[in-house]
Amino acid sequence: MRLKVGIAGATGYAGIELIRLLGNHPEAEVVLAGTESYVGQELAAVYPHLAGHLSLPGRAATPEALADECDVVFTALPHGVPMKLAPAVLGAGKKLIDLGADFRLRDTAAFETWYQHKHEAADLMSEAVYGLPELYRAEIRGARLVGNPGCYPTACALAAAPLLKAGVVESRGIIFDAKSGVSGAGRGLSLGVHFSEVTENFKAYNIAGGHRHTPEIEQTLSDLAGEPVVITFTPHLVPMVRGILATGYFQLTAERSTDELLALFREFYAGEPFVRVRPAGDLPQTKQVSGSNYCDIGLQVDRRTGRVLVIAVIDNLVKGAAGQAIQNMNLLFGLPETTGLAAAPIYP
Amino acid sequence: MRLKVGIAGATGYAGIELIRLLGNHPEAEVVLAGTESYVGQELAAVYPHLAGHLSLPGRAATPEALADECDVVFTALPHGVPMKLAPAVLGAGKKLIDLGADFRLRDTAAFETWYQHKHEAADLMSEAVYGLPELYRAEIRGARLVGNPGCYPTACALAAAPLLKAGVVESRGIIFDAKSGVSGAGRGLSLGVHFSEVTENFKAYNIAGGHRHTPEIEQTLSDLAGEPVVITFTPHLVPMVRGILATGYFQLTAERSTDELLALFREFYAGEPFVRVRPAGDLPQTKQVSGSNYCDIGLQVDRRTGRVLVIAVIDNLVKGAAGQAIQNMNLLFGLPETTGLAAAPIYP
Amino acid sequence: MRLKVGIAGATGYAGIELIRLLGNHPEAEVVLAGTESYVGQELAAVYPHLAGHLSLPGRAATPEALADECDVVFTALPHGVPMKLAPAVLGAGKKLIDLGADFRLRDTAAFETWYQHKHEAADLMSEAVYGLPELYRAEIRGARLVGNPGCYPTACALAAAPLLKAGVVESRGIIFDAKSGVSGAGRGLSLGVHFSEVTENFKAYNIAGGHRHTPEIEQTLSDLAGEPVVITFTPHLVPMVRGILATGYFQLTAERSTDELLALFREFYAGEPFVRVRPAGDLPQTKQVSGSNYCDIGLQVDRRTGRVLVIAVIDNLVKGAAGQAIQNMNLLFGLPETTGLAAAPIYP
Amino acid sequence: MRLKVGIAGATGYAGIELIRLLGNHPEAEVVLAGTESYVGQELAAVYPHLAGHLSLPGRAATPEALADECDVVFTALPHGVPMKLAPAVLGAGKKLIDLGADFRLRDTAAFETWYQHKHEAADLMSEAVYGLPELYRAEIRGARLVGNPGCYPTACALAAAPLLKAGVVESRGIIFDAKSGVSGAGRGLSLGVHFSEVTENFKAYNIAGGHRHTPEIEQTLSDLAGEPVVITFTPHLVPMVRGILATGYFQLTAERSTDELLALFREFYAGEPFVRVRPAGDLPQTKQVSGSNYCDIGLQVDRRTGRVLVIAVIDNLVKGAAGQAIQNMNLLFGLPETTGLAAAPIYP
User: Minimal Cα–Cα distance from A180 to chain C, Å?
Assistant: First the structure.
């Protein structure tokens, strides 16, 4: 019997990406499409690309409906909302994977400081597991509540993990200079996503500790390093729809060659179905993971300055959101981790 | 046992799209990747997005290898080359689907006039079936050689078919004003595909009878109308990668409403898995079929001038090339027509 | 003494393009920047690209202020608003150039039908001159009120004029298949200008008599033909910021060669500073006029169907709006027509 | 009498940008357009956007012709070629501004190491002045040979100068994470500028000491710091035509506020016509300088890590190439520095 899936926030970009990917999933089916803006409308009328793929009207995603009708709920909503839905869903013995920020941080105070929002389910926050399978797979398997990582944090954490775990770089002074496509800003309207303002344009935003993904990255890096890590995180906006590229700068603790470090990465990610370490001299580009759940990683040592640079790319809507959420669902329900996620990237 | 597939021209854009789509096909597997430029190299080294998806070195696509090792051969090559490969493949009892121009036209003289190239397999040309399943499904089923339609002709023929078949429009004076993304020009290098020349630019090219897809469209329309049809075909280049939109202009023979004609289209395409007729007032956009084998069609009557305008959109690399080729393969081998082609479009 | 210029609607795209171009104009200076959204804010704070170029706060564009402080007023506003401002400005002996729709049509009934808006200055409507200098230069010189043409109508009228004037094409059955960049939709927010929805997308909109530029084009073509002309006008949206390309389809009344018709165009536009007729075999692209006031035109006869196709390109914000408005201002004040408009296009 | 200008390499992107900008220059005129590919062809036939702007055939740029016919020569050529032209031009008492790499570095050995090319005019190399007017204005005024800075080095040096000069940051550990539009790669053909490969894609390249602009940036920073500076320089490719954004990371030597440092920048660049320091909280975007000679700079202190981040944007073809070269020409000939460069950026 297939898993009954509810999506709260089904008509945002993460929501319809969930629907696209779950359409390829043999063990799950979407039974409840929650939406605020399109209640009563067929999803395929709102999004014509879905015509013929599902017949499902938008509905209000009430806690009761989600708890009653679904085996697993994905929430793709503004922060503050999932924390209101989670108790009912979990109380009914169902599982919840939040694609937003409510259950990523473990530290309630940090959440409240960075998001300027009181957390109304602090107990669940501490129970929740951070859904980055490459680093927390065992914990995810036994969980009922998953905080699905942010798009930037996914790329940054996977770029840093082998280095910090092996202790070959200093935990101080780490910089992530990150670049994202515009879909990361969602479907809401603002000048910042206006075509004529974005095209032929490139900018930085929320720099120098201004972006809310900063504490999330630091939480994971601190876990890896075994001590508190403070980073500089600098997001930029690229005139493209999909894709994140994170350029990580790390100070080596001792001289290492590019080949040594690539070997370290290959070993660390051996067996991982969604991490592809590129050969020496080959840096990944965002387009080579488009539409897929891959994180591709390349690196190079800068001998002149004793640094190693790591480049990681993901599709922000897949490994950075909906794909990773399904990967987590597979883990929660004991399915093979790649179920529904095996299609190759689309290129060009 | 899965079909053994050979691709001659595997490293062009149509070739790698075949590889992407066949990766989702449960009944077929690529066993021979023919290439000129990358002989001996792993495809996944040439195209990093394929890493982990197949281990297949580029090889010379000799007639012998294709005939020996494959059940079905796709040729995605410049015109003139497939006609040299076809005899051996067919002679060995295998099937061939040409994504190029060698086997689309029935009239050898027309081929030689438009392509300025002597046809060396005129007998096969007359045997070949034109691979537009919505119009020639019965013939395709029994064929061993398929001329897979061009990208523009696919969109134009599907836009025109119900009207001409029903005789509600004049067969004279038809215009197709068509617009294509840049991937239609392939991966070869030229100023015409140079990013800085194409971006923020729009142009027409090969107009007024200058484009080789003209006789191909006319052949199909003549079949439909039961009399020779001469059209005006005007291709344009859009600064995007994938997608074709064809705007067809037809003179109505008598007054008709938009609703009447939409009903005609819905009836004509009833049961077609890959044609989606849009409701009244809803015109299709290229992005809503991106990555998929759909042709979406909308139309509107212009009462002021007695015309009907039909808008058809496809992904030029899928329904306009690789997807349609696989649809044809499914027909040739008695498989369900949608096998391997059921994934939803990717949006946004 | 320099002309004192007021702009009502200074912070929309047409408004800031006026400001950019007037910055190069030796005989004019902007003294009043009217805005609704940014009253009291420096323009250079709203639009950082203008920093250092002017110090001018946004102000409410009241009829009194415009009439008192300006020699000439440009209105770049929604239809219905300029008709409220014009009486005061003209009454004070000043001149007004409306970049919107209020004064383009001569027929009040047509305006009210197409715009669903009562015209409150019908007398001025009939007095106003249509500001397409290549066709109405003499009338513009003596006018005090100019209806500056729409972007599509500029391209379409210039594509058609020599043919209709010479009577070498039929006045029936004319089609304009037109394509515009996104800046034509202005700076307002909607899904239709959302980057993730527009990029890698192409669509038609308001087809089959649904676009308000239709009667405007027909008015000019009727003037040229000396009889009522009804056209089919089909606008499309191109994923680029600037540029319009209009593809015009005309039925020849007798056989003509491409060279003959090009000669006709060259003669018709001889001495025109902003129309460049391309040589045979050379079709214009939008990028070659970007940022400039040019309209570039190419054409080709389709002997197979007895049609001539004319391709015209403009920058919709310049020759399609702000540049043409300044060209009109130059005419109104007896300045050389190219003053402030002589800079070359920006390429690439 | 106007300066007679020769351009060797007139048909590349830097060359035609020189032609566009010199078209606005009242004291200079292009008399010799040197080209390899288009000898004998009118520039306006090669680049239709120039039609009506100049009548000048492409010619071979021989040392003799340049020396005889021009007052000043711009070379926009591959490295190794200008060094062959310079002796004749200078020997004839004329001036030369090289937009390439031959005369930027002072250290012949560094040139030969980074460019793997023997320098044939080492004496001229040491005579040449580095053409970054904001830092080397006095030297430029008296020079006859200018090495016009690279695009990345212009943005990086202007971002770093006030900090290093004031000694408020450490000279060790500086990182420039830089992003460039595609026009920086020129008009030559390669997969790296193929539209379908670049669009919807983002990548890093030549990282970790692999890019030849590294020693050029280090030379300027060493001048500023008064000691050898070694940097990490990471270039990336953005899917847009024009624009560079450099994100500079500097470690503060003592605590400083954003406001203090902005005051430092404003003072350092007081009176500079082409540097615009943005107010606190306002980071520059590439589009706001498009088509202009501006460098816009913003910064923010990251208190959590003791760093200051500086964001600088330029149009790579203007301040990063042709515009800066004209600024240098103005200095060499005692003209007002902004002559021909005063037009506002084009937006959107």
Answer: 13
Residues of D in contact with A202 (CB under 8 A): 179, 181, 238, 240, 243, 245, 285-286, 313
Range of the domain at A219: 152-316
Based on the domain organization, do D10 and D113 belong to the same domain? Answer: yes
What are the helix (H) ranges across chain B? 13-22, 43-46, 63-69, 82-91, 108-115, 122-127, 133-141, 151-166, 195-198, 213-225, 258-268, 323-332
The Cα of A52 is separated from the nearest Cα of chain B by a number of Å equal to 8
Asked if C160 and C290 sit in the same domain, the reply is yes
Contact A195 C13 (CB under 8 A): no
Which residues of chain B does D241 touch, with a Cβ-Cβ cutoff of 8 Å? 195-196, 199-200
CA dihedral defined by D91, D92, D97, D98, rounded to 10 degrees? -50
Q: Which amino acid is at D125?
A: M
Residue B241: inside a domain:
yes
Q: What is the ipTM of this complex?
A: 0.96
Best D46, D190, D195 residue to mutate vs chain B (most B CBs within 10 Å): D195
Q: Is residue B77 part of a domain?
A: yes
* Chain B nearest CA to D57, separation (Å): 21
Q: Collapse the DSSP code of D277 into the 3-class scheme (helix H, G, I; strand E, B; otherwise coil) and give the result.
A: strand
Please say if A151 is a catalytic residue: yes
Interchain CB distance below 8 Å, C190 and A189: yes
State the DSSP string of B171-229: SSS-EEEEEE-GGGG-S---GGGBHHHHTT--EE-S-SS-STHHHHHHHHHHHHHTS--
Q: What is the CATH number of the domain that holds B8?
A: 3.40.50.720
**A95 domain-assigned:** yes
Answer for the pair C105, C214: CB distance below 8 angstroms, yes or no.
no
**Residue pairs between chains A and C whose CB atoms are closer than 8 Å:** 54
Q: Please state, in angstroms and as integers, the Cα–Cα distance from residue B84 to each residue in A34, B8, B76, B119, B120, following that order.
A: 56, 12, 13, 10, 7
Is the same domain home to D120 and D157? Answer: no
Q: pLDDT 10s per residue in chain C (348 long)?
A: 799 999 999 999 999 999 999 999 999 999 999 999 999 999 999 999 999 999 999 999 999 999 999 999 999 999 999 999 999 999 999 999 999 999 999 999 999 999 999 999 989 998 999 999 999 999 999 999 999 999 999 999 999 999 999 999 999 999 999 999 999 999 999 999 999 999 999 999 999 988 999 999 999 999 999 999 999 999 999 999 999 999 999 999 999 999 999 999 999 999 999 999 999 999 999 999 999 999 999 999 999 999 999 999 999 999 999 999 999 999 999 999 999 999 999 999
Number of domains in chain A: 2
Decide if D236 and A242 are in contact by the 8 Å CB cutoff.
no
CA gap C24, C18 in Å, rounded = 10
Contacts of C182 in chain A (CB under 8 A): 195-196, 199
Which of A197, A201, A230 minimises the CB distance to D305? A230
Report the chain D residue with the minimal C-alpha distance to residue A181: D200
Q: Which residues of chain B does C291 touch, with a Cβ-Cβ cutoff of 8 Å? A: none
For the entire predicted model, the pTM comes to: 0.97
Q: Of A183, A190, A194, which to mutate for an interface test with C (greatest number of C Cβ within 10 Å)?
A: A194
- Asked whether residue C191 is assigned to any structural domain, the reply reads yes
On whether both D110 and D156 belong to a single domain, the answer is: no
